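Inverse folding, one chain.
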């Protein structure tokens, strides 16, 4: 009889201890996963916090555009010349707005340090809004150059090539736009939460 009790109690205890340990392990894993997700949620905003990207003063890759739009050999010189003009204008904008970029860089550095110390993700989100304000005149100049390049392509490319250009351009600039929109939305939600307390 004692032998039978030992045989049933021992496996039962073993099963219970295994279940308890596995539940603790899964809870710990969920907690660590939650922390990782929190860090990932904050990471993209800081990673994309690049003054050049925010202002949109990036140069275009002519080889990539020629490949994407399937530009014929005879049309390449005209397209390359247009892209070169655009890229030169982007470089000019950077040079002529040196003081604005310098101010934005200093402000971004200060806010990054503040965010590191406070560990508050909304510091960087608010910084993004302020940087958009600082860089607004530069962004307008960039938009004007994009409009000119798009008008040139509309006039000189086939309808199919122009459609590809529009899609390519949207894809190229959607990253910056989506970051700005998500930042503004999160900031508005944060303000609502603050006011509700």
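Residues assigned per position:
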């Amino acid at each position: 009889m004692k032998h039978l009790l030992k045989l049933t109690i021992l496996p039962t205890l073993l099963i219970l201890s295994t279940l308890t340990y596995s539940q603790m392990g899964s809870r710990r894993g969920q907690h660590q996963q939650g922390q990782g997700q929190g860090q990932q949620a904050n990471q993209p905003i800081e990673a994309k916090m690049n003054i050049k990207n925010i202002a949109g003063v990036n140069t275009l890759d002519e080889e990539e555009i020629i490949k994407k739009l399937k530009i014929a050999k005879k049309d390449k010189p005209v397209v390359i010349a247009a892209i070169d003009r655009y890229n030169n204008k982007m470089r000019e904008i950077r040079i002529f707005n040196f003081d604005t970029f310098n101010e934005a860089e200093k402000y971004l550095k200060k806010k990054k340090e503040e965010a590191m110390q406070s560990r508050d993700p909304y510091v960087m989100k608010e910084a993004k809004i302020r940087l958009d304000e600082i860089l607004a005149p530069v962004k307008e100049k960039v938009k004007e150059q994009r409009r000119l390049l798009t008008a040139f392509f509309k006039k000189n490319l086939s309808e199919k090539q122009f459609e590809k250009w529009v899609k390519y351009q949207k894809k190229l600039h959607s990253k910056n736009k989506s970051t700005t929109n998500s930042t503004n939305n999160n900031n508005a939600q944060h303000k609502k939460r603050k006011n509700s307390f």
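The CA atoms of residues 78 and 156 lie 9 Å apart. Residues 1-42 form one domain.
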